[in-house]
Each structure stands twice: as C-alpha cells, then as structure tokens.
C-alpha cells in the first residue's frame, strides 16, 4: 500500500467531525498506478466523516481502473453508487480518460 494512502484516512478523521461532511470529492486521475489500495485505505475515514445521505464524487483515470471495479469497491464499503452519466467521460490525453462516479452514504 502506498505510504500516502495511510495519510488520507486519518486526515479525514481529523479534518471533519464524525458525520459532519455533506460532500466529499477526490480527483484520482493523476495516479499512474491502480488506485484500489489508496481507496481501500481512505474510504472508511472519508465515509466516517460523512453525514447519512451525503455524497462522494470521485473522478479517475478509466485506463487504470474500470468503472465497474470502482463501483464494486464503493459498494463493498457500504456506499450506494448512483447511475453514471456517459456524457461526462472524456479523454484528457493519450494516457488519461477521466470519468466521474457519485455514491451516497445510506441513512
């Protein structure tokens, strides 16, 4: 697991009161490696900072992680992914195709 992944989870716990955040957002497209370990380490802290009914929005490079894999990962952490809008996906450059997924913390 990357060292920076270990920093993200505690950061969410210290930056926000438990259950205070209405929205979390992260841009993962700059990662050239597969971001599953980063997300696995960070999601519990991020989710703990979210109010029931709050949303998380993640944009990422679909060339390193498929949409269905990210949706499955979010579901394993208890979030409810919302249907995607295929019009958002776009090419940034030859190495990055960015997409967006939104998931909601259940009540």
Structure write-up:
It is a single chain. With 107 residues, the chain is an alpha+beta fold. It has one domain: Translation Initiation Factor IF3. 34% of the residues lie in helices and 34% in strands. The chain is built from three helices and five strands, in the order αβαβαβββ. Helix 1 runs parallel beside helix 2. The longest helix has 13 residues. It is globular and about 40 Å long. The termini are far apart. The N terminus is likely disordered.
CATH structural fold name = Translation Initiation Factor IF3
Number of helices: 3
Q: Write down the oligomeric state.
A: single chain
Total discrete domains: 1
| Helix/sheet category | alpha+beta
Please give the largest β-sheet: 5 strands, mixed
Strand coverage percent:
25-35%
| Beta strands, count | 5
CA gyration radius, whole angstroms: 13 Å
How do the SSEs run, as a string of H and E? Answer: HEHEHEEE
Shape estimate: globular
Assign the CATH architecture: 2-Layer Sandwich
CATH class call: Alpha Beta
Mean pLDDT: 78
- Cα(first) to Cα(last) distance is 31 Å
Please mark out the parts with pLDDT under 50 across 5 or more consecutive residues, or reply none: 1-14
Q: In percent, how helical is the residue content?
A: 25-40%
Task: Please outline the helices and strands.
Layout: H1 3-15, E1 21-27, H2 36-48, E2 50-61, H3 67-76, E3 79-81, E4 90-93, E5 96-105
Parallel strand pairs: 1-2
Antiparallel strand pairs: 2-5, 3-5, 4-5
Helix pairs in contact: 1-2
């Amino acid at each position: 697991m990357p060292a920076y992944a270990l920093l993200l989870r505690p950061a969410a716990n210290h930056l926000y009161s438990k259950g205070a955040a209405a929205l979390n957002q992260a841009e993962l497209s700059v990662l050239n490696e597969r971001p599953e370990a980063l997300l696995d380490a960070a999601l519990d802290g991020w989710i703990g900072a979210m109010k029931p009914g709050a949303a998380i929005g993640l944009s990422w490079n679909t060339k390193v992680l498929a949409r269905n894999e990210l949706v499955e990962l979010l579901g394993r952490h208890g979030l409810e992914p919302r249907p995607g809008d295929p019009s958002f996906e776009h090419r940034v450059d030859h190495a990055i195709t960015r997409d967006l997924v939104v998931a909601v913390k259940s009540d």
